[in-house]
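Q: Here's a chain of 415 amino acids. Please give me its 3D structure as C-alpha cells.
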Amino acid sequence: MKNNIGTTRSGLRLGYTTGSCAAGAARAAAEMLLSGTEIRTVRVSTPKGIELFLDVEEISRAETYVECAVRKYSGDDPDVTDGILVFARVEAVDEGKVTAEIGIAFAEADGQVILEGGPGVGRVSGPGLEQKPGQAAINKVPRRMIGEALSEVCGKYGYGGRLKVTISVPGGAELAEKTFNPRLGITGGISILGTSGIVEPMSEKALTDTIWLEMKMLHDRGMDYCYVVPGNYGTDFLTEHLHADPYYAVKCSNYVGEAIDDAKLLGMKGILLIGHAGKFIKLAAGVMNTHSRQADCRMEVLASHAAMAGADPETVRLIMGCINTSEAIRLIRERKLLDLVMKTVMERISFHLRHRAGTDLQIGAVMFTLEDGILGKTDTADRLLEMLRKEQDSRENEDSSDRQIHKHTGGTDRI
C-alpha cells in the first residue's frame, strides 16, 4: 500500500512523515476504542492533499485504552527514521484528572484531545522552538493532524468526552543521537515532524536542477527579478509579512550559492533572498550552503558580532553556549545589543552576497525570525523589494489584458 503514494518529477518515491504516522496511529486507536472493533488499515488526510491508507500494526486493546502503531516509510529519502514504529495510545480521560500539565490541548478540537509525548519522543529543553521547554517535541502540523483526526472520530461515534493521546517511539532516544536533535536542545528522543505530511525526497542534483528550472520559468515569462527563499518559512513570511505573491519566489533549500549562480547565468537583473536567521546568519561568514552538515557557524557569527558591539566576555561565552539562534538572539536583545549586532551582520551578509553575485546581478537579503519579524535587511533590500512589486504589478496587468483579449476573441487567435 505504501508504495503507491507516488513519485517526484525525478522519479524518486514519496514517503510519509512521522507526523502522518502519529496521526494515523492515533486515529486507528481512537476508532478501535470508541467502536470496539479492530481495524487494520487507517485513512489519513495530509496537508499536501494526498490521502494515505496506512497499515496498523502492534495492536493492544484493553477496556480503557487502545494502543497501536504505524510504520514510518521514507520512500527514497535517506532518513534515519525509515522503518520505525510510531505508537499512539488513546484513552478516555476522567474530567477530574485533567490538568494543564498533562499535555497540549488542541484548540482545533476545542480541547477535546490532550496530547503527550511518551518514551522515545524528545523533550524541548530550552527556548527558541515551537514548543515550550519541557513539552514534547511534536510540531504544530502533526498536532493539528492528530487533533482533527480524533475530533472527526469523536463526532462519528457521538463521543463528547476527552481523549488523551500518548505518542511513543521505541528506540527513539538512541535514534535521536543520529539526528540534529541534541544540537537543537531536544533531549530523550526524536521529534514528530512534517509540514505537509509527505516526505518528498530529492537528490542534490534534483534540488539544484529544480532551482534552475523554477528561475528559468520566471525569466522566460519576462521576469527580471525574483525572490529566493529556502523553504516554507520563507514563503510564509514573504506572503504574510511582505504581502508578496509566492508565485514570484524560487525555493533554494540550502543552496544559496547555486541560486545566485543560476540567476547570473540566466541573466536575471536582481534577486532578493528572504530567510530565517537559523539559516541566513551563516551567510555573514560567507557560507553559501546552509545545511548543518556543511557548516555550522551560527554562534561564532553572533558571538563575534556581539563582541564588536561591546558585549563583555561572559556574554560572548553565553552566546557560544546557546543551542539555537533564537536563544542567542534573545540573549543579545536582553543586553540591548541587537540593533548593533544586526547592523554589522547584515553588512557582512551584503559583502559576501555581492562577492558571489558579481557586478551584473543586483542582490539583497532580508533576515527574520518568527518571534521578531524582520531582524535585518541589506542596504539593497528595499530597492529590490520595490522593483519586484513593480514587476509583479506589471506582470499581473499584462495577464489581465491577455485575459480580456482572450475573452473578446472568443478564446481563439484571429488574423
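Q: Can you summarize the key feature?
A: Residues 96-103, 105-110, 401-415 have pLDDT under 50 and may be disordered.
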